[in-house]
Amino acid sequence: MRLSHKLALPALGAFCLSLSSCTVMKDYEKKQAQVRADRELAALRSQARAEHAVFRAHKGWKADTYRNKALLEQATPDNVSLEIALGEQRGFLLVNGALAMDFPLASGKKSHPTPAGSYTIRGKVKDYHSNLYGKIVDPAGTVLVADADTRQHPVPEGASFAGAAMPYWMRLSDTGVGLHVGHVPGGSAASHGCVRLRRQTASYLFSLVQVGTPVVIAENAPALAE
Known about the structure:
Layout: H1 2-56, E1 66-67, H2 69-74, E2 80-85, E3 90-95, E4 98-106, E5 117-120, E6 123-125, E7 129-137, E8 143-149, E9 160-165, E10 169-171, E11 178-181, E12 195-197, H3 199-208, E13 214-218, H4 222-225
């Protein structure tokens, strides 16, 4: 029995050494895989910025929407984020941090500025109507107040308040800030604080984002500063 015990010790040591070597190898392979993934992502972002620069080199780009087809094909609810650039009145869809869309929008005007900050999508409603802004009409359908704010314009007896339609509503805050379909005049802030989008843009983003999708609102887009 003593002989067997002595013979088992070297075998046990070799076994432990083998396990240690396997762990080191797995850690090394994991680190190498991460390095490759980081390089691929950096290359992807660099290529996307180069293609986007070509888009912005064309005259009249401000009226158009940029789409990177290859990136959009990779887009999923789990790998996208949004950036809103108040200074440019542009929005950006990022796929794994790479620039996939650049689109026009209209944020809040000076009297109702869109608050900058970091948000997440908190809810989605396809057919949404505002409970703050809209119009007040009498029983005959005559518009009494065309640009009504329920906090400032009491509804006369017999009249009713019709909330403004905000299709493809994507809520960002409890105070009523969100993204939705609306008039986008082109380079001008025009809303009551929300971010207005063209219908095609809003419907696409609505179908893609999920509750929890990150949204950054800033004077300038962080993605363009990289």
